[in-house]
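User: Show me an example of a complex going from sequences to structure tokens.

Assistant: Sure. Here are the input components:
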Amino acid sequence: MADTKIRLYVEQPLGEGQTIPLTREQAHYLFGVMRRGVGDTLAVFNGRDGEWRAEVREAGKRGGTLDAVEQTAPQCDPPDLWLLFAPIKKARTDFIVEKATEMGAARIMPVQTEFTNSERIRQDRLQAHAVEAAEQCGGTFVPDVSDLQKLDRLLADWPEDRQLMFCDEALAGPGETLGQAGGGKWAILIGPEGGFSEAERARLHALPFAHAVSLGPRILRADTAAVAALTVWQQALGDWA
Amino acid sequence: MADTKIRLYVEQPLGEGQTIPLTREQAHYLFGVMRRGVGDTLAVFNGRDGEWRAEVREAGKRGGTLDAVEQTAPQCDPPDLWLLFAPIKKARTDFIVEKATEMGAARIMPVQTEFTNSERIRQDRLQAHAVEAAEQCGGTFVPDVSDLQKLDRLLADWPEDRQLMFCDEALAGPGETLGQAGGGKWAILIGPEGGFSEAERARLHALPFAHAVSLGPRILRADTAAVAALTVWQQALGDWA
């Protein structure tokens, strides 16, 4: 039974004839939940070697193995784009990670701003969300989710060759035109639900690598703003063109 | 205590000195949850008369009244844009309604396509979500949420002066440029998670008022696609410019 709708992220290198051991969770999903067995095929990817068709060789309750058969899609990496956001309520933070993966961010970085409530995040849980979103969206890339960092420290050590688009709710008018700023390495910064502090806003506007952009006349929630900002960037400079 | 962070949608006309009766739910929220009382101020809007500062005149457990004091923002209607989408799982349908309100859709229309699972929706619950989203996003307008309609019937009776942007996952390349199609009345159609059927896709491409647009190389979930599509439209033809 061939079912390309099942896509699994694996950690092993993928190549013709490569054997892929399954984790206990993957075996449970594939053989228990999805009722697949020996000889069935599915799609696998590891974030580096494209997508492969794989066939089940051994199926057990606690594990199993697949054989990689042939490459079905080349590796396709997103643009070199970071998404920085201030974590919010659990469900919405999960959504931001899912959406950033679908929208093609290369790295997802939770940041602490002056008005961020979160003291810590569950990096492992958010990384697992990124894997699941990549499995669902048909991509071959999984963005890295970083641990929580302080925004002011991140800006102090900012790499000089990376531009930053930030979304300023207080901005009247459309803000800067990204196309003129040019491609290359970028990051998008989404503020917390309470907005940036006055000191943060002044600092951001003064940074030579920062570009203020407006997301319209209504106030967007952080998860909505993340998708809207990624759309603006992908259309102007990314892989949507 | 002035707190502009509290915003309530009310149904009464708003004007200087106008008395506004509160529903039981609003009284519970305002006096019970938010601990406000007589003399406190908040913002109210009704979707027609802009935003007003109102003062609590009577506060009870089951009701109360406000006095409208002065207009604090003019009425601001979104562009004449409908969002058509195929309902999906409950939580994600709620999200689409919330996001469409924030992003400035004038009307939200759940539609049944060939691959839509939903037979019915809770229109009243979705409308309440739109009200809540309008309260949160600082807007003065609440989009109407329609009851579930069949897409094929809706297209058969389509108003000839309204253009339709639909998001085609199977499209290679960026699709049409919206700017060239011009402003005026529009609708956006987001397909169901399983995509459009071949018959639906062929019909959509053949419609003289329809414009196919791509949302990038990855497959987006319906709620992500709704925000991305609204961003594309608002940037090209809407009130973000």
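The lines above are the inputs; the final block is the predicted structure for all two components together. The domain at 81-237 of chain B is CATH 3.40.1280.10 (Alpha/beta knot).
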